[in-house]
Specification:
- This protein has one helix and eleven strands.
- The chain is mainly beta.
- The strands form three sheets. The protein has a four-stranded mixed β-sheet with strand order 3-2-10-11, with no helix packed on it.
Length: 118
């Protein structure tokens, strides 16, 4: 039985609050192939309502989360002039163990960071 899972959250570091309404997509990467596994939107806490990947769907491997930050930054009045400096933010990462992974995004209009959370 698989026990692995993947969660995320998005924090707006420019305003110091959770980033509500950020769309995201999850892909499994295998060589040059990409398979879309899930789509979600962050809630008022900046998190998805359920794990992005859990239980039977979880597999060890390489993944990519794409956060559609541009629309959020525009709606918040933080995006600046077109073309946007940040629009789609890709984070490619590996999951090597059958356990919980948390991949958050700390977002501002001109930079972002991530880490492996708990």
């Amino acid at each position: 039985m698989q026990n692995g899972s993947l969660t995320t959250h998005v924090l707006d570091t420019a305003r110091g609050c959770p980033a509500e309404g950020v769309g995201l997509s999850l892909y499994r990467i295998s060589g040059t192939a990409r398979q879309k596994l899930a789509e979600a939107v962050t809630n008022s806490d900046g998190r998805t309502d359920a794990p992005i990947l859990a239980d039977a769907a979880f597999e060890i491997g390489t993944y990519e989360l794409i956060f559609f930050a541009g629309a959020y930054l525009q709606a918040a009045g933080l995006a600046g002039a077109a073309p946007l400096f940040l629009d789609a933010v890709p984070i490619r990462f590996g999951m090597a163990e059958d356990r919980h992974y948390h991949v958050p995004l700390l977002l501002s209009p001109f930079g972002y960071s991530t880490y492996r959370g708990s």
